[in-house]
Design a protein that fits this description.
This protein is mostly helical and 401 residues long. The chain contains 17 helices and no strands. It is globular and about 55 Å long.
Length: 401
């Protein structure tokens, strides 16, 4: 493909930012909107907020392999247009909900049609020259992080200025713009290798997981998302109880910390092509995994909020290397005809890290205290770094010697 492949990469990254903002943007005002819908008990509103916010990534995890398969059969342009159109309608409909149950149903539908991430990954490996894949993967990972970072910010500003129903119109309009971008700017790409329609989804996923390297890299994807989201629910409570911070500033400080970690993660992802010129990809993912484990311990040891924030941002920087490097190595480890489909399965497992991270961290915090969340997460990253060193770094060096 000629130089137009870069234009397509930029387009799908912009679509990813818009889609991420649309899905995540409600989190900043969701509990308040639920109170407006009639949940006057703060505990009940918090419970519903957890369910309504968590059900979408859960459904995305379950539906991603299906949409990857459809993109392989019909072409990514048609499938992404259908996904964005449905997302635009369901997000706009949220503005008219009158009960929490109605909002829950619409959030479920948004998750069902939210499988555009693996389609974007499949497009990258389809059109990008082999030597440029790490750069493209890094840029795409940065776009995912930017959606997560700017979504709550946009949602909160729109809610404060225009009311709690207005952000849904804003997000619906943003999705509509993304839809028009696909319609006018995305060529009708087709995957050269089609998956057999008779082959079941389960058998496809099993065939991927039979490859040891893919199993390890999928686990790294899960762990990365687990580490990013798991600390989120306990962070405000940890800051409030163990650091001398005025209650009215806790939410703002947490927002700044999350923004800083996301920004540094995006910067790391964008810089991957330069780093891979100096270090091998297995070495990069090993170093990043070990560093994240160390930085979680340092976060816990910090006596001040700013020390915690600085080491959280540095941890975000190293996390920014893990996902795009893992995706690049996965694309090299599977046959070319399976690359598009494999990202559906990978995205499902990775997204479950977003779902299970807050749940497991909450259970650990309740049973053993807030500090145990930092130590247990660090321990998991250390164990993962050992597996990466043994199965990726050592095996590569022994094979090249």
């Amino acid at each position: 493909m000629d130089s137009s492949w870069k234009r397509i990469i930029y387009l799908i990254c912009i679509i990813q930012i818009g889609g991420g903002i649309t899905i995540i943007g409600v989190l900043s005002f969701l509990p308040l909107f639920l109170i407006e819908l009639g949940l006057h008990n703060p505990g009940e509103a918090a419970m519903w907020a957890g369910i309504v916010s968590g059900v979408t990534p859960c459904m995305v995890a379950l539906s991603a392999p299906y949409w990857s398969r459809k993109a392989n059969q019909l072409g990514p342009r048609k499938v992404m247009m259908f996904i964005l159109f449905t997302l635009m309608v369901t997000v706009g409909a949220c503005a008219f909900t009158q009960t929490p149950s109605q909002l829950l149903v619409l959030r479920i539908l948004q998750g069902v049609v939210g499988g555009y991430v693996p389609i974007g990954l499949a497009i990258i490996v389809l059109i990008t020259p082999e030597e440029k894949v790490p750069w493209a993967m890094g840029l795409y990972q940065a776009s995912m992080v930017m959606g997560l970072v700017f979504g709550p910010l946009m949602g909160g500003l729109a809610a404060d200025l225009l009311g709690y129903r207005a952000p849904f119109f804003v997000f619906s309009g943003l999705t509509g713009i993304c839809l028009l971008g696909i319609y006018f700017l995305m060529p009708n790409l087709q995957f050269k290798h089609k998956v057999d329609a008779q082959e079941s989804q389960i058998s496809l996923i099993k065939s991927f997981l039979m490859i040891p390297r893919v199993r390890l890299l999928v686990a790294m994807q899960f762990l990365c998302n687990f580490g990013i989201t798991g600390i989120g629910p306990i962070l405000p409570l940890y800051i409030k109880h163990y650091m001398s911070v005025n209650d009215e500033f806790v939410a703002t400080i947490v927002g700044i910390i999350i923004f800083g970690a996301g920004l540094f993660s995006a910067l790391a992802s964008i810089s991957i092509s330069k780093v891979t010129q100096r270090l091998t990809m297995p070495r990069i993912i090993f170093t990043a995994t070990w560093a994240v484990g160390s930085l979680f311990i340092l976060q816990y040891l910090m006596p001040s909020i700013w020390g915690l924030g600085i080491f959280r941002a540095i941890a975000g920087f190293f996390m920014g290397f893990i996902a795009p490097i893992a995706n690049t190595l996965i694309s090299k480890a599977v046959p070319i005809e399976r690359r598009g489909i494999v990202f559906g399965a990978v995205s499902s497992v990775a997204m479950m890290g977003n779902v299970l991270g807050p749940v497991i961290s909450g259970v650990i915090a309740r049973a053993f205290g807030y500090g145990a969340v930092f130590w247990s997460t660090a321990a998991i990253f250390f164990v993962a770094s050992w597996f990466v060193y043994r199965n990726l770094v050592v095996s590569r060096e022994s094979s090249s010697s």
